[in-house]
Amino acid sequence: MNRILKTTVLAAAVMSVAGVAQARDQIRIVGSSTVYPFASYVTEEFGAVTNYPTPVIESTGSGGGLRLFCNGVGEGTPDITNASRRMKPSEFERCAENGVTDITEAKIGSDGIVLGQSNENDVVELTLEHIFMAVAAQVPQDGELVDNPYTNWSEIDSSLPDREISIYGPPTTSGTRDAFEELVMETASEDMDVYGEAYTDIRSDGVYIDAGENDNLIVQRLQEDTGAFGIFGYSFLEENTNTLNAATIEGVEPEPEAISSGDYPVARSLWFYVKNQHADEVPPMYEYVDMFMDEQMIGDGGYLRDIGLIVLPEEERAEWRQQVADRAQLELSDLQ
Description:
Elements: H1 3-22, E1 28-31, H2 36-49, E2 56-57, H3 62-69, E3 80-83, H4 89-97, E4 103-118, E5 125-126, H5 128-135, E6 138-141, E7 144-147, H6 153-156, E8 167-169, H7 175-189, E9 208-210, H8 215-224, E10 229-233, H9 234-238, E11 244-246, E12 248-249, H10 256-261, E13 267-275, H11 285-293, H12 295-298, H13 314-325, H14 332-335
Parallel strand pairs: 1-2, 1-3, 5-12, 8-9, 8-10
Antiparallel strand pairs: 3-13, 4-10, 4-11, 4-13, 6-7
Helix pairs in contact: 5-7
């Protein structure tokens, strides 16, 4: 065998070994803490009813998960990322720059962002403006913007409790934080001429407390700090009704029907994203994805509804299920 042929054979053998090394049966999932309980249920079911190992799932926040997902293709990068907001165009472009060019998007349901508190307190009736005034870095006074002076809810509105403002909330890497800024901060400020444009800066003087990516930790803190509020997804309220209640917002309670219809003003959609380029190396990936999208999971009588998922209308569920079954490739135009 001549030297060139030997080199070619050796290179092919190395590539073959590398390909085998990359192949794995355990799916790797990252992303949203809000989607985490739903995805965890599916991963446990998947491990129980298939011959594949239970997928590894990590709660990194929506933004953190999408960063990891978009880092590239192959060993060391996740197969799926969960998100409590839709992928941003800038994230799609970063994926493409790093070679992640075949992505399927899946919408699994809806969720409401709640302001929860210990049920030792009466339910508080809040407006979007009340919440904005409590957390904005700067607020209008006498026609000018000043550093937020409010330390007590009753200072914002005399109808509110005479309680210190203390709010545990998600960090900037969280999809819940993104949705809160869009649905509460932008909406409340867009009609205030003093800002000139939508305002989303959150105060950093200790009133708003960055509580990390794990919503369960916020729930635990509220059980100890009974005067505080926490910002988290509806499913965590649903799981803790024995210890928590939630404020009404614009007169609407955070209930499944109100969230699904859009009557509750702080409602958002839940997603996951699939890296199709990993399908050959991770054989169980599509089986897991199809299980997640099945009616048994996300339907009206599905398991995930029982743990707080707000289900999509039947026709919309069918459309998304078909898109996922077709492994439809996400395009930048879909996100714009």
